[in-house]
Design brief:
It is a single chain. The protein is mainly α. It has a domain of 89 residues. Helices cover 84% and strands 3% of the residues. The chain has one helix and two strands, in the order αββ. A two-stranded antiparallel ribbon has the order 1-2. It is rod-shaped. The N and C termini lie far apart (182 Å).
Length: 140
């Protein structure tokens, strides 16, 4: 009877230990699952933060690129404006030189014309001319 009682106690003790082991196992599994869930959340948050940082960096790069482009465009337009202004000045200078040359030519022509009027006429009575008509030696 003592033996049966002892066996029962051992059996109960084994069942109690088994129950405790199962509970501890359940707690461990639950704890492990909780840790995995937290780890997943932490990784997800980290991944989202990295993505946000990359997006922010990309946006900043785009803004910087837009700024550089606007700066370049402004510089390019200023250069084109300066070039156009120089070309217009060059064209005006060329037109002014042409006008000056034309005026000078006209002045010289008028002077020549004035001088040509005042020059004595060639004598018509030389070398076979009589009364303004060719005569004598050079007739054909």
């Amino acid at each position: 009877m003592n033996l049966q009682l002892e066996k029962r106690k051992e059996k109960q003790e084994l069942e109690r230990k088994k129950k405790i082991a199962e509970e501890k196992h359940k707690e461990w599994v639950q704890k492990k699952n909780e840790e995995e869930r937290r780890e997943k959340e932490r990784k997800l948050i980290k991944k989202m933060a990295e993505k946000a940082a990359r997006d922010l960096e990309r946006i900043q790069l785009q803004e910087k690129a837009k700024g550089k482009y606007k700066e370049w465009l402004k510089k390019k337009r200023a250069e084109e404006s300066e070039k156009k202004k120089k070309e217009e000045e060059k064209e005006q200078k060329r037109v002014a030189e042409l006008q000056e040359k034309k005026e000078k030519s006209e002045k010289i022509f008028r002077e020549w014309l004035q001088n040509a009027r005042n020059k004595p006429r060639p004598v018509l009575h030389g070398y076979g001319y009589t009364n303004g008509k060719l005569s004598g030696l050079y007739l054909y």
